[in-house]
Amino acid sequence: MQICCLTIAPAFLAADIYLTLSRIVVTFGPENSRIKPLSYPRFFIPCDILSLIFQALGGGMASAASHSNKNPETGNHIMITGLAFQVFTLLVFMLLCVDFVVRTVVRMNRMGEAALDPTHVTLRRSMKFRVFLVALTLSTICIFIRSVFRVVELGEGWDGALIKNQTLFVVLEGVMVTIAVLVLNAFYPGLCFREGYIKKPKIEKRSGGRRFWQRTSGKAGNEKDNPTQ
């Protein structure tokens, strides 16, 4: 059960990362992306769920087999399949992120600020948002490194050298996941995106103008009703 929980836990964090990218694409401009913003979560999150199912199923089968003194190879292979699929999904995601950055930079060099979405200028200039982009990148790389390590570790089997190496496990599993979680908690999207979505109220000017119009129009109406005044 411990191996199962350790294996599937980062899949939920990966789903958050996939969802966040769609908001980043909207912030910089959907025209800079090769695919539509909503296509990112619609494609990657189902892939993440499928990976999670394979990992949980395989981990459960391997754990049950080992406790029953049976061969856990079948469950182990299923779990490795889920992990390998997660690594592949993350790799495709990272390539699309790099492609988005390159396309944005190229369009900015050619068009200037016109290449970016004009409604999110304040958000893009926010220091919190810029630090969040660094935190998201770091978190994604940490999850990827951890997932690759788990594929190699479990690929050697339950009696392999890596699974018995406590130092590598702590560094490439524990430290990677800890960094990924901490940076996104310190710079979570709700805080870093907030500045760009707070709109300044303009109700007072409009209502004031409306009241002024009502006063002047009312005065004009009274003059029409009383021409002798």
Overview of this protein structure:
With 229 residues, this protein is mainly α. The chain has helices at 2-28, 39-67, 73-111, 121-125, 127-155, 166-186, 189-192, 194-197, 203-225. α1 packs parallel to α3, α2 runs antiparallel to α3 (73-111) and α3 (73-111) runs antiparallel to α5 (127-155). The longest helix has 39 residues, at 73-111.
Short description:
This protein has 229 residues and is mainly α. Helices cover 79% and strands 0% of the residues. The radius of gyration is 27 Å and the shape is elongated.
Q: Count every helix, treating DSSP H or I runs of 4 or more residues as helices.
A: 9
Classify the secondary structure makeup into a structural class. mainly alpha
Beta-strand percentage range: under 5%
Return the average pLDDT rounded to an integer. 81
Reported for the largest beta sheet, the result is: none
Order of helical and strand elements: HHHHHHHHH
Give Rg in angstroms. Answer: 27 Å
Q: Give the fraction of residues assigned to helices.
A: over 70%
